[in-house]
Design goal:
Layout (H helix, E strand, L loop, with lengths): L1 H26 L3 H10 L3 E2 L4 E2 L3 E3 L1 H4 L4 E3 L4 E2 L4 E3 L4 E3 L4 E2 L4 E2 L2 E2 L15 E2 L2 E3 L4 E2 L4 E2 L4 E2 L4 E2 L4 E2 L7 E4 L4 E5 L3
Parallel strand pairs: 1-4, 2-5, 3-6, 4-7, 5-8, 6-9, 7-12, 8-13, 9-14, 12-15, 13-16, 14-17, 16-18
Antiparallel strand pairs: 10-11, 18-19
Helix pairs in contact: 1-2
Length: 180
């Protein structure tokens, strides 16, 4: 009951609707059908984009109106996208299997003892044109991945990545600059 009091009846009903949307997404075996369903629920999806079996979290806050995927993107299997703070994928972005994009931090209920030190924060994540995010990478709130950059597999990205840069590690650090 505390959870229902915390979010209210309207948000609880939105949660149920978007959980149903999530079930429909997972049941859709064809990527074009997933793109269509995401558009129906408010996402903006560009042409020639392939979306494999993804999980979207926190849709009940704002729906999918802060979720933008441009043209010719590829989003791999088991990718987890927290859409609360907003996600933008520009043209030709690839998100490899099992990567995570987190757009908000919330330690728990308003009464949680850490809430005063770590209040709820949400910040959009932007992945610029032509960037590649490796398998199992984690992108944290407020990060921008620069144009034609590479995030190595398993990296934890805590700050912005400049254009034409390869980052890897935990936390992610610059490995090299890409000549253009």
């Amino acid at each position: 009951m505390e959870a229902l009091k915390a979010i209210g009846l309207q948000k609880a009903l939105r949660f149920v609707v978007f959980q149903f949307a999530q079930v429909m997404l997972h049941a859709s075996i064809f990527p074009p059908l997933r793109s269509l369903l995401l558009r129906l629920f408010g996402a903006q999806i560009g042409k020639d984009t392939v979306i494999m079996d993804v999980s979207l979290s926190n849709m009940h806050h704002y729906g999918l109106r802060k979720f933008y995927i441009s043209n010719r993107c590829f989003v791999g299997d088991e990718v987890m996208l927290d859409v609360r703070g907003g996600i933008t994928l520009e043209d030709n972005v690839t998100l490899s299997n099992r990567c995570h994009i987190v757009t908000h931090i919330n330690v728990g209920y308003d009464t949680h003892p850490l809430q005063m030190h770590y209040p709820v924060k949400e910040s959009p994540v932007v992945v610029k044109q032509g960037a590649y995010i490796g398998s199992n990478a984690l992108i944290l709130p407020g990060v921008t991945i620069g144009r034609e950059s590479v995030v190595g597999a398993g990296a934890v990205v805590t700050r912005n990545v400049e254009a034409h840069t390869v980052v890897a590690g935990v936390p992610a650090r610059v490995i090299k600059k890409i000549s253009v």
